[in-house]
Each structure stands twice: as structure tokens, then as C-alpha cells.
Specification:
The protein has about 325 residues and is an all-alpha fold. It contains 16 helices and 2 strands. Helix 5 runs parallel beside helix 7. The N and C termini lie far apart (about 40 Å). The structure holds geranylgeranyl diphosphate. The site of geranylgeranyl diphosphate has 16 residues, from helix 5, helix 7 and helix 9. Geranylgeranyl diphosphate (GRG) binds next to helix 5, helix 7 and helix 9.
């Protein structure tokens, strides 16, 4: 098993940030705010956040804020709750939360809560438990959780719970590890984890580990590095992480840095040359999987990677600064 090629991942992230016109940058243009959160959080977990220009990022984040208080994924795009959380997280990483007009952002999020306690993602009204998590996490970071109806928000999340112990995106929706992270994270932040059947959910989650050691997001699906985050963080929050094989998962994640070319000593450039992590071994790397691979290793206490908070998806020292400064 290889080791984490930290320096190369740092170089990959810094280079990805500068590229503007390759395929990955073009398709990600509208969600750059998420990409910036993934990249910068990875750098912080690897102890390299000081390699970037703080002012450049902070002023770009602020230029994505709209009159409504919400943030967009890039300049010239519409605001959405998905990018609003990433913007707040990026400012939290840089210890710059004090430059936010908290009332303005809070009003935007409060305006998205519906009568039944659910949240819409933006003015167009799509409802999803992802948006419940985002609203709760964001307001908690801004110390304004009391501005929404938390009781109704929790009741709505519980209405998305299934008989298998998992959660879907709306009532009756199929259980999926990504949605489970959102629901369990929101319940953790609101202090409502006692409402979860931890053994039933823990069983469903640990069944996500397949032969290769990787985790999938639902039954019969392929493993993907990103579920190292969605599944593992949920298992940690419900105190059942010892139900999976950690060593095998570490091996799976590390193998997603290696392409066959390198094993065969071919001369075209491999991903351990260039850095970055892919969804599964031998696939192309991207910033999303690089973040979730490193964040997964952080939850697995891999040496040299800073600890990450499983509910807030921010480094533990950043969360401590927000709540215990
Ligand atoms: C701060 C970490 C953090 C998250 C913010 C946006 C969000 C809140 C959570 C997203 C949760 C989610 C739904 C994740 C799943 C993403 C994913 C890889 C979906 C792929 O779904 P399919 O059906 O893939 O294409 P499978 O693996 O089921 O075949």
C-alpha cells in the first residue's frame, strides 16, 4: 500500500485553482464556490492553507454575495443555499466570519424555510434534506440557529426517515448515504440524535463497505471515495464507526491516488506524479474526490492529516474557534 502523497495533492489543488479553461474548470464554473471550499479545506487538513492569498479569496467570496443575502457559485450566477454554506465555510477557514453581515445572510436562509419545516434551495422552491442540513449548519456557524423553527425542521427531517433506518431527500425517498449525512448532521447540530435508531442505521451504513474496502452510497452500487466521507462521518456521529474495517478503507482511498500506468512504469504521467484523488482506482482525479478522500483519511486518523469535525465538515480547530473562542 502506498502512502498519502501530500505534497503532490497540494500542488494539484493549487494548480487546479489557477486553471480557467480546461474541461474541469469550464464544467465547474457555476459551482466554483463549492470547489473553493473543497480545495481550501483540503489544504487546511494537510497543513498548507498558508500557501494561498487570503485577501484574494475573501474578496472573491464577498463579490458573490447578492442583495438577498445569499451567495452564488460564481460571479454573475444566481444565489443558492448550496453556495451560501460554502461561502460561510471558506470565511470560517480564514477566520474572517466577522466581515459577514450576519443579519442579511440569516434573513436569506430564514426566507427559505417552508411551512412544514423543510427548506427550499433558492427562490425556485426545490426541497431536499440537503438544504435542511445546510440551513442548520450555516445558521449554527453564524450563532443564529434560533431564527428558524428548529422543532419543525427536525420534524421534517424525521419524516424522511425510512424503515431501513436511513434517510432520503424527501419523505418516501430512497435511503442514500449522502442524504443520511445531511439528516444525521442536522440532527447532531440540533442535539436531536436520540431520535435516531443508531443500531438500525449503523447496520445499513456498515453494509456499504464492499470487498475492495471502499464504500458505496446505497445497495448494489459501486464504491466511491466520496462515501468515505458521507458514510464514515455518519457512523462517527452515531458512535458506530468501529463496525467497518478502517484499514481496508484506508487502503482503498490510497489506491485511488495510483493509476495502473505507474504500477507498470509506463512513461505517461500518473496521478501520483500529478496528485489528486479519483472516485475509484484508475479513474481520473478531480477536486471533489480529492477533498472527500483526504477528509475520509482525516476521520480515519491518518497520520499527518488534521482532524475534521464530522457534523460541520470543517477542521476541528476551526470549529473550536467558532464555538469556544
Ligand atoms: C459541507 C460536506 C458538506 C456538504 C454540504 C451538498 C451537501 C451538504 C450534501 C450532499 C449530500 C449528497 C446527496 C451526496 C451524494 C453525492 C453523490 C456522489 C451523488 C451521486 O449519486 P448517484 O446516484 O451515485 O449518481 P451512486 O453512488 O448512488 O451510484
Amino acid at each position: 500500500m502506498g502512502e498519502l502523497v501530500t505534497e503532490k495533492h497540494v500542488r494539484y489543488i493549487l494548480a487546479a485553482e489557477k486553471r480557467k479553461d480546461d474541461f474541469e474548470s469550464v464544467v465547474m464554473e457555476h459551482l466554483r464556490m463549492n470547489g473553493v471550499y473543497w480545495g481550501l479545506t483540503t489544504l487546511d487538513l494537510l497543513g498548507k492553507l498558508d500557501t494561498v492569498d487570503v485577501n484574494e479569496f475573501v474578496s472573491w467570496v464577498m463579490s458573490c454575495q447578492h442583495e438577498s443575502g445569499g451567495f452564488s457559485g460564481n460571479i454573475g450566477h444566481d444565489p443558492h443555499i448550496l453556495y451560501t454554506l460554502s461561502a460561510v465555510q471558506v470565511l470560517a477557514l480564514f477566520n474572517k466570519l466577522d466581515i459577514i453581515d450576519v443579519d442579511k445572510v440569516t434573513k436569506y436562509i430564514v426566507s427559505l424555510q417552508n411551512e412544514d419545516g423543510s427548506f427550499s434551495g433558492d427562490i425556485w422552491g426545490e426541497v431536499d434534506t440537503r438544504f435542511s442540513y445546510i440551513a442548520i449548519s450555516c445558521l449554527s456557524i453564524l450563532h443564529c440557529l434560533d431564527k428558524i423553527n428548529v422543532e419543525k425542521a427536525v420534524k421534517y427531517i424525521l419524516s424522511c426517515k425510512n424503515m431501513d433506518g436511513g434517510f432520503g431527500c424527501t419523505p418516501g425517498g430512497e435511503s442514500h448515504a449522502g442524504q443520511i449525512f445531511c439528516c444525521v448532521g442536522a440532527l447532531a447540530i440540533t442535539g436531536s440524535l436520540d431520535l435516531v435508531d443508531k443500531d438500525l442505521l449503523g447496520w445499513w451504513l456498515c453494509e456499504r463497505q464492499v470487498k475492495s474496502g471502499g464504500l458505496n452510497g446505497r445497495p448494489e452500487k459501486l464504491p466511491d471515495v466520496c462515501y468515505s466521507w458521507w458514510v464514515l462521518s455518519s457512523l462517527i456521529m452515531i458512535d458506530r464507526v468501529h463496525w467497518i474495517n478502517k484499514e481496508k478503507l484506508i487502503k482503498f482511498i490510497l489506491n485511488c491516488q495510483v493509476v495502473l500506468a505507474e504500477l507498470l512504469s509506463c512513461d505517461f504521467e500518473s496521478d501520483t506524479e500529478n496528485g489528486g484523488i479519483s472516485d475509484r482506482p484508475d479513474d481520473a482525479v478531480d477536486i471533489f474526490h480529492t477533498y472527500f478522500g483526504v477528509a475520509g483519511l482525516s476521520l480515519l486518523e491518518y497520520p499527518g492529516v488534521k482532524p475534521i469535525d464530522p457534523a460541520y465538515a470543517l477542521p476541528v480547530d476551526v470549529v473550536d474557534r467558532i464555538f469556544f473562542k
